[in-house]
Amino acid sequence: MPKSASLISLATLIAFSPAAHSRDKPEPLSECVVLPADYEAARFGSQYLLVKDGNNYYRIGFGSSCSAIAMSASVKITTDGQPNRLCPRETEVSGRRDYCTVREVVRIDEHEYEVYARKRR
Question: Signal sequence: where (predicted)?
Fold first, then answer.
C-alpha cells in the first residue's frame, strides 16, 4: 500500500473514532442548575461523579479522591443547603458518612457520558 493511501486510511480512522466526536475541551458549567429529584449519578473512579438529568450530562470533579462517592451507593448534591442544586462553586456531594466539595463541573455530551459509563464497568 502506498504511503499516501496509508495516511488517508489513518486519517479516516481517526475522524470516525469515538474520541474525535467528543468535545476538545469540556464546557465548564457557568450557572447553577436545579436537578430533578430523579437525576442519575454514577461514580467514575473516586475523583469524578457523572450526572444525567434528562438530556443534560455533567462530569463533577473533586480534584482528588472523594470518600463520599467511594463509600456510598447513593449521594446527595447540595449547594448552600439547597438539595439538587448543582453550581460551579460551593456545591457539595455527600454520602452516608462523608462529603466532598466540588472543584469543577463540566457539561459533557451523551457520547462522552456513555464512554465514561462503559469505562467504569
Answer: 1-22
Q: CB–CB of 49/93 below 8 Å?
A: yes
Render pLDDT for 32-89 as a digit per residue (tens, 0 to 9): 999 999 999 988 888 999 999 999 999 999 999 999 998 888 899 999 999 999 999 9
Whole-structure pTM value: 0.75
Angle at 111 between CA 119 and CA 36, to 5 degrees: 95
Q: Where are the domains of the chain?
A: 26-120
Query: CA-CA distances (angstroms) from residue 62 to 6, 24, 33, 65?
Result: 42, 21, 18, 7
Calpha distance 13→86 (Å, rounded)? 37
Asked if 94 and 78 count as a contact pair (C-beta separation under 8 A), the reply is: yes
